[in-house]
Amino acid sequence: MIIDLLSQEHRTIERLLAVLEHELDIFDRSGRPDYEVIRAIIAYFEIYTELYHHPQEDRVFAKLKVRDSVAAAKIGDLAHEHQEGAKRLRRVAKAVDAVLSDREVLRQDVDNIIREFLQHERRHIMMEDRDFFPAAQKALQPHDWIEIASALSPRKDPLFSDATEARFDALRAHILQLEQEAEAERH
After folding, report:
1. What is the pTM of this model?
2. Are 159 and 168 in contact (CB under 8 A)?
3. How far apart are CA 40 and CA 21, in angstroms?
């Protein structure tokens, strides 16, 4: 089901946000984070989230507005939220580029930009999981889901699917390493 796919993608996004936060913590301690990993996270958001994930959600939301306008109104302007998230992502990319090109930039400014992105993305995912997806599951009809599915891109997640892209290899390995370290700390 489409909602299951979108929820699975949210779990991937949450993993990426955790890695980005881990790298930011290294940066905050005046260390050198893995900028290849950070750039891969930015690329993932630019490519997969913006071009595939959000358009799928927007299609579901458009149907929800038709089927249950009250529920859609409670959720708000999803397309606008997605646009604002893209703007925050561009600010993150510019801040990282500034650091990498040795331009004068305050560490606190970079930290604020990335933390704002992390906070908004987490809040957005939580709202969609809590409010949007259940409302869509309740209101949409079987033929709505068929119509939405027919418009979906056949593109697979480039990070955690059988269609993995080479540019995400370092990121995937880094995520798995961090998860293993976290698991080891718990035991």
Report:
1. 0.84
2. yes
3. 14
What value does the mean pLDDT take over residues 126-143? 97
DSSP letters spanning 125-180: HHHIIIIIHHHHHHH--HHHHHHHHHHS--PPPSSSSTT--GGGHHHHHHHHHHHH
pLDDT computed for residue 151 by the predictor:
81
Question: Are 92 and 114 contacting, i.e. CB atoms less than 8 angstroms apart?
Answer: yes
Does residue 26 have a pLDDT over 80?
A: yes
Q: Which long-range contacts (CB under 8 A, 24 or more apart) does 65-70 make?
A: 67/139, 67/140, 67/141, 67/144, 68/135, 68/138, 68/139
Other CB atoms closer than 10 Å to residue 16's CB: what's the count? 21
Rg of the Cα atoms in the chain: 18
pLDDT at 170: 66
Residue 44: what residue type? Answer: Y
Closest to 166 (Cα-Cα) out of 40, 54, 52: 40
What are 146's two structure tokens? 């068929």
CATH numbers and ranges of domains, the chain: 2-186 (1.20.120.520)
Confidence (pLDDT) at 48: 83
Amino acid at 134: P
> Residue 103, Cβ neighbours under 10 Å: how many?
10
Euclidean distance between CA atoms 27 and 100, whole angstroms: 12
From first CA to last CA, the distance across the chain in angstroms is 35
